[in-house]
Design brief:
By secondary structure, the chain is of the alpha+beta class. The chain has one domain: Cyclic Phosphodiesterase, Chain: A (Alpha-Beta Complex), CATH 3.90.1140.10. It contains four helices and nine strands, in the order E-H-E-E-H-E-E-H-E-H-E-E-E. Helix 1 packs across helix 4. The radius of gyration is 17 Å and the shape is globular. Bound molecules: adenosine-2'-monophosphate. The site of adenosine-2'-monophosphate has 6 residues, from strand 3.
């Protein structure tokens, strides 16, 4: 099964972003973008790809440990960015060091469970909102509209393992369906183990 570890913004925080994204949908050129589906919005920590079911028990143990080693930390959705012409995303602010550490721990957990992980790229926290259908789509109006977006902060308290079910229908542009497999609580504000 295709898996990744993620932080899931709480529904109220997603709704705030949703209000801005509603405005983006009304901008000229919005049809040139394939918008990600909202119930699936997430911040990827570590993408594992196809994982052999046999590795799941060990992966679970190691992800639980990664979560336990990480204190809960504040985050908020903030601003926007893009990966070239491939993706438009909402950014995050807050305790980015702790988020990066959690991403590294999730990546290490997967490696130690025997999952061949891609080489490290610099971790860039992002929540993908849309992908251009064509190269020539100009992302600037969307980036401008998102630039001033400031979500309310929340306390990240969980590391979640998510399954990505790729569309089988063959309908062009259909989105993957994301399914929560399991979540593990972070250690909490005062619970950082030595
Ligand atoms: P993206 O949002 O930037 O596309 C599930 O596919 C999640 O894992 C997505 O959030 C995706 O990031 C991320 N991801 C990271 N590396 C990936 C890869 N090589 N293939 C597919 N998704 C990847």
């Amino acid at each position: 099964m295709r898996l990744f570890a993620a932080v899931l913004p709480p529904p109220a925080r997603q709704d705030e972003l949703g209000l801005v994204v509603d405005r983006l949908h009304r901008l000229p050129g919005a049809d040139g973008l394939r918008w990600t589906s909202r119930p699936g919005w997430h911040l990827t920590l570590a993408f594992m790809g196809e994982v052999d079911e046999e590795l799941l028990p060990e992966l679970r143990v190691r992800l639980a440990r990664a979560a336990h080693r990480t204190p809960s930390f504040p985050l908020r959705l903030h601003g926007a960015g893009h990966f070239g012409r491939r993706a438009l995303w909402a950014g995050v602010a807050g305790d980015l060091d702790e988020l990066r550490l959690l991403a590294e721990r999730a990546d290490a957990a997967a490696r130690r469970a025997g999952i061949p992980m891609e080489e490290h790229r610099r971790y860039q926290a992002h929540l993908t909102l849309a992908r251009p259908r064509r190269e020539e789509v100009d992302l600037h109006p969307f980036l401008d509209e998102l630039a001033t977006f400031e979500g309310t902060r929340w306390e990240v308290g969980e590391l979640v393992l998510v399954r990505s079910n790729l569309p089988v229908s063959g309908v062009r542009g259909e989105q993957p369906r994301y399914e929560r497999v399991e979540g593990w609580p972070l250690a909490g504000p005062a619970g950082r183990p030595g």
